[in-house]
Write a structure and sequence with these properties.
The chain has about 375 residues and is an alpha+beta fold. The protein has helices spanning about 5-30, 35-40, 45-55, 60-80, 85-90, 95-135, 140-145, 250-255, 265-280, 280-295, 305-330, 335-355, 370-375, and strands spanning about 150-155, 155-165, 170-175, 185-195, 200-215, 220-230. The chain has a six-stranded antiparallel β-sheet with strand order 1-2-3-4-5-6.
Length: about 375
């Protein structure tokens, strides 16, 4: 890459990195609320909260990166125009491709990053997030043992613990079990412990009593015990690996899901797989739209606000059908081809237009576009 190309490459890459992290920061703030409830209700640390939200960020990179490319290209080229650097390049004899190739190199780099993120980083991160959230919600210690607080692990069950020691010894327990209206019982014990047995998790209580009401007259019964085992097997949740969502699956698992899944779910996975493969192509499309907005037209000393606004509208108009094709693929798998043809047509069309003389009337007819722009009065 020549010195000029390397310079333009850096001028576009810098803003791309900045805008990508800026947009990701906004996305992080918006999606972090999804995990706030889990962390607060399950008494997790701030480190766990940050860990979950950071792992979930790659899910948005594939969607946001093309837009960051567009903004970076517009910003960088417009700055070069405002500071007359491009005009000097044209006057020195460089043509438009001296600018286009470095921008395309940045777009291709962004496309590669998007593919790696979509195909490897995102599913790995989402797997870890979902497994961690499932583990937190299934953690019996955090579900049952909250010192000095009444907890409701499930409807009809209330648990209170006065003291929870670091060695697992629980002091001052109360368990009110009203899950069965015909057999409501209250358990109280001096101490207890959680145990994982071959038959499942158990809450073992020592030196206490169980109270329940018996008969139509409502006579209270009390039974003292030295040791009582409370069954917690219904809370022993083990995640079914076949229940993984589309965001947690790798490309092979999306294209070849389990045959036991419903046809609707299989089609959804099929559409997600093709979306991951076609989505990064918009990095190139949006880069070319930005290039044409500032390089493809006549030189204008008054600025390019109108072109930039038009390019932004075209960018949105190009991307929306891509989302529509994905929705169509959910019901019609053969429509997946449109997810690739649509951005490919824009890439080919824009490259062709940029390779041809401009259609706008130049003040200096017969001269190359940028020579005319450079010497325009």
């Amino acid at each position: 890459m020549s010195g000029l190309s390397s310079y333009i490459f850096r001028q576009v890459l810098g803003p791309l990195v900045f805008f990508t992290f800026s947009v990701l920061g906004v996305a992080w703030l918006s999606q972090s609320l999804r995990y706030l409830d889990v962390v607060v209700n399950q008494s997790q640390s701030a480190a766990t909260y940050i860990y979950l939200t950071v792992l979930a960020l790659p899910q948005t990179i594939g969607l946001l990166l093309p837009f960051a490319v567009f903004i970076a290209v517009i910003y960088a080229l417009n700055r070069l125009y405002v500071e007359n650097e491009l005009v000097v390049m044209w006057a020195a004899g460089f043509n438009r491709w001296a600018v286009i190739w470095p921008v395309l190199a940045v777009a291709l780099l962004a496309t590669l990053v998007a593919y790696v993120t979509n195909l490897v980083v995102m599913p790995a991160g989402m797997r870890e997030v979902k497994d961690k959230v499932f583990e937190i919600r299934a953690d019996l210690v955090n579900t049952f043992v909250r010192e000095g607080a009444f907890t409701n692990p499930t409807n009809g069950l209330t648990v209170y613990v006065a003291e929870n020691n670091s060695n697992g010894d629980i002091r001052g327990m109360l368990v009110h079990d009203a899950r069965n209206p015909k057999g409501i019982a209250t358990y109280m014990a001096e101490r207890g412990m959680l145990a994982d047995t071959p038959a499942g998790p158990r809450l073992i209580m020592f030196n206490g009593n169980v109270q329940w009401v018996e008969g139509g007259a409502g006579k209270l019964k009390v039974l003292n015990f030295e040791k009582y085992t409370f069954d917690l097997s219904q809370f022993d949740k083990r995640r079914d690996q076949s229940a993984r969502e589309a965001s947690e699956r790798y490309l092979g698992e999306l294209l070849n899901p389990e045959k036991t899944l419903p046809e609707k779910a299989r089609r959804k996975f099929h559409a997600e797989a093709h979306n991951r493969l076609s989505g990064p192509l918009y990095c190139i499309v949006f880069a070319l739209i930005g290039v044409y907005a500032l390089v493809g037209g006549n030189f204008n000393r008054k600025g390019y606000g109108g072109r930039i606004a038009l390019a932004f509208g075209i960018m949105i108009a190009v991307r929306l059908p891509g989302f529509g094709f994905q929705l169509l693929t959910n019901s019609t798998p053969d429509a997946a081809i449109a997810m690739y043809v649509w951005p490919a047509l824009w890439i080919g069309g824009l490259m062709l237009i940029l390779s041809m003389p401009r259609f706008e009337m130049l003040r200096n007819a017969g001269k190359p576009p940028f020579e005319a722009a450079a010497v325009a009065p």
